[in-house]
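Below is a filled-in request sheet from our internal design queue. Each sheet records the structural input a requester submitted and the sequence that came back. We keep these sheets so that new team members can see what a complete request looks like end to end.

REQUESTER: design group, bay 2
PRIORITY: normal
MODE: inverse folding
CHAIN LENGTH: 327
BACKBONE (tokenized):
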């Protein structure tokens, strides 16, 4: 049975004077799937917890129902499908021959469930998992020049198809993939049409890949159309870069991505830039795994974000609100 959403509790997390009033706040269910507490959870339980914690939407989970069934489950909890994540299988030669089929299947799931954003990434690979967090070093396997052209063709094709159905397409640079480092992000931006392919800026993967999320939120401006808010544990990140972990996956299991507010992310700085331009997309609170119950980690992230938005909004005359009023 769907959980009854306490509208007063949800409203408590969104004050009248908060920054980013037009943004929607969602979460990513990977936290529940990768929990270390040994408790199994089905889709209904995960959706119940997401609703109970005051989120407005969710990424599609791998065992969630599809189509009309998912729409009914979400509606019963006053939730929306924020995004479907499409991971394109790839090698150094670019997306595989079936990559476009993978993206199209994800687009169908998004559209059938009346979701919002198609979030596309290159899938992880064993060679780049070995280099994750230190992929700028010599000898790291990288895309060939031809591979970038193939990726651009796939992204433009799926973006056009998604746009015809009313869905924005964003690309998600991701550690442990062929689009991780600042140089690779730049190549992606230069190779794709900004009108057709936006950016999903994942603050955690941006940091691990060696980029500065605050600087890039400012620099990329309107091209950032979707945001994953993820924090990074500094000691685990240092160990990853120092070679104490053989693979990125090992560092993730050891807590590389931590609760929002507990790591090195400049959350206030990130939100201030988004507020200053009147960002009205999704803010997706994400943490790849937790030591304790995932609902507790998700609740921390949700409340830390609420506090930051309230702090930035102040009395309703923050710089972001003032800029929008003048505009």
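RETURNED SEQUENCE:
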């Amino acid at each position: 049975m769907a959980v009854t959403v306490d509208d007063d509790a949800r409203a408590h997390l969104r004050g009248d004077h908060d920054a980013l009033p037009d943004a929607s706040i969602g979460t990513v269910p990977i936290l529940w799937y990768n929990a270390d507490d040994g408790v199994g959870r089905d889709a209904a339980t995960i959706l119940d917890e997401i609703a109970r914690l005051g989120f407005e939407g969710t990424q599609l989970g791998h065992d969630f129902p599809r189509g009309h069934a998912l729409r009914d489950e979400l509606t019963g909890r006053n939730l929306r499908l924020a995004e479907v994540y499409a991971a394109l299988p790839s090698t150094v030669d670019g997306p595989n021959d079936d990559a476009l089929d993978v993206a199209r299947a994800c687009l169908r799931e998004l559209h059938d469930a009346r979701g919002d954003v198609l979030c596309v990434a290159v899938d992880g690979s064993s060679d780049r998992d070995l280099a994750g967090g230190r992929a700028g070093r010599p000898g790291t396997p990288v895309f060939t020049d031809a591979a970038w052209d193939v990726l651009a063709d796939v992204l433009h094709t799926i973006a056009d198809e998604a746009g015809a159905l009313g869905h924005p397409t964003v690309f998600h640079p991701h550690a442990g993939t062929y689009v991780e480092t600042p140089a690779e992000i730049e190549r992606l931006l230069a190779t794709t049409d900004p009108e057709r392919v936006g950016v999903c800026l994942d603050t955690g993967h941006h940091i691990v890949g060696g980029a500065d999320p605050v600087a890039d939120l400012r620099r990329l401006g309107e091209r950032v159309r979707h945001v994953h808010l993820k924090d990074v544990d500094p000691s685990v990140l240092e160990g990853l870069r120092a070679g104490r972990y053989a693979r990125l996956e090992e560092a993730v299991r050891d807590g590389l991505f931590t609760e929002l507010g507990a790591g090195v992310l400049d959350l206030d700085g990130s939100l201030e830039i988004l507020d200053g331009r009147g960002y009205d997309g999704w803010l997706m609170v994400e943490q790849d795994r937790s030591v304790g119950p995932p609902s507790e980690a998700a609740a921390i992230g949700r409340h830390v974000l609420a506090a930051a938005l309230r702090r930035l909004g102040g009395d309703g005359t923050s710089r972001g609100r003032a800029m929008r009023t003048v505009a």
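SHEET NOTES:
- Confidence is low (pLDDT under 50) at residues 318-327.
- The first helix runs from residue 7 to 12.
FILED BY: M.R.
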